[in-house]
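Quick start: what a row looks like.
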Amino acid sequence: MTTSDTPVETRDSQVVQRDRVVIRFAGDSGDGMQLTGDRFTSETANFGNDLSTLPNFPAEIRAPSGTLPGVSSFQLHFANYDILTPGDRPDVLVAMNPAALKANIADLPQGGVLIVNTDEFTKRNLTKVGYEANPLEDDSLEDRYAVHGVAMATLTRGALEETGLSKKDAERSKNMFALGLLSWMYHRPSESTERFLREKFAKRPDLAEANILAFRAGHAYGETTEAFAVTYEVAPAKLAPGTYRQITGNTALSYGLVAAGRTTGLPVFLGSYPITPASDILHELSKHKAFGVTTFQAEDEISGVGAALGAAFGGALGVTTTSGPGVALKAETVGLGVALELPLLVIDVQRGGPSTGLPTKTEQADLLQAMFGRNGEAPLPIIAPCTPGDCFAAAVEAAAIAVKYRTPVMVLSDGALANGSEPWKVPDADSLQPVDPGFATEPNAPDGSGEFWPYLRDQDTLARPWAIPGTAGLEHRIGGLEKADGRGSISYDPDNHDRMVRLRQAKIDGIEVPDLVVDDPHGDADMLVIGWGSTYGPINAAARRVRTLGHHVATVQIRNLNPMPANLGEVLGSYSTVLCPEMNLGQLAMLLRAKHLVDVKSYTKVAGLPFGAEELQDVFLDYLTGTHPHATHAATNGAQA
């Protein structure tokens, strides 16, 4: 997409109209960049722009101050039209210290706006990140960028001089100074930020007022200094009518679980152990006891899933949340859930691995673990949301499948979805389809004995009956040992085991999922790009760019990864080239090749960051023009999103 700059003269300054802007706030992990970015995002959402965000921060609670590993950043892409990614490169980079500058300057395109907190460019801080000289004092930056040096700490201290705060406490508000300055530059509303600060620091009114004063000082600095002669406006986007709110993937998943409790009529029980980047779901759900939600912070991952499965046995909607390392620990209990054939939701917010890996960075390398990571033949449905807002629908759908088919269901989110945000149209509660859990209420033995057979299956879904413990006349025994079909007694009979394995697989295979809908505007594309999870945004943004250049390309997203849509084979066979970009080493591509015998091409990246639209555009063009030098590996110099 091209960006149009239309200058409009005003009495005080020139206002430039833009279609879209990408801003990146970067600083030390203690500088409050995530809060700053989140507040700017909230104001942008209130203004009515479409938006997408990319928080990026260290795994350490307090990384070494002033170092490259300690840099925290928050990128926001907002526009007057629908956008799909948080942007490849920032138009504006706010660098709070030398480390933030060095870590991010390569992403700022020539002519971009660079706003620097000059107070932090001391000899000690420069040396710490390898600068031999101050880059603000030579022409290395001035020649390439529109550089604005602002003594943010000094100006913040001056604004707070009469508050009585110590120098250290006053300087902590410099991120609000930066927020005020950027809010002035881009005509963002400020009322809700001031209200937010008063609520956040309700127990410390002095800190609330200090942050508000710093925010106002930044705004006033932009108005009064001659350095900023231009401000920018991005008009609201034309969104479909409805009520919208800014939402992250983790919050959307949480609300989806609350909604699932209502659609199924079941109490929701979350058994969870805190783990990045899934912990926010536990935090959010703990606020919603009024909706029949119980949260249990377990002592470890195994206890969390065990409690959730126990709750499912007792008639609740059992949920456990985790990331890749936790999925590995929960595997035995999830396999038990497959054998027990009970509803259980397993939410995996994927992160960089293996082992502890990159806790705060995104990846989608748990697909094969989700598909096969249990002993024996233990199939379960897998759903992968594609946007932060889609996480809500994925949770509701997963609950409906789990309850209807009596099976654990895994939801594969990832760090980019979990922490990223977008405007979300709040659904009408009446539009959510109810799901009857259909608890067993009376004996069901076909031989007329008056017994209850816990593994007598529904002929349509192959689901077994779900009897709440304590229901008179429905006493039964379940467990991890293989059960006799129908009666449910322990069985070591080889023919019975073969039958039970095939029944469990047939139950999953029989789950009804929507057919794939291919986006092929011209209807004559030779190349299909197939994705799953958070690759949806960059794949489709890149496809837009390629189409603008006159090329024809089709895209499709696999949301239901097990079972896969029935028309998948037909779709794959309709294109001469099938390309699958993934943030792993080609896991979905391998599954597609194996199942459909199609030569799916792989483009992979495991850098802890999402694909960039510019990066994928180049890859698509390589294939479309027959050059494709990066067919099996990621380009090392691709644009960073």
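That is the whole record. The first strand starts at residue 6 and ends at 9. DSSP finds 20 helices and 22 strands in the chain.
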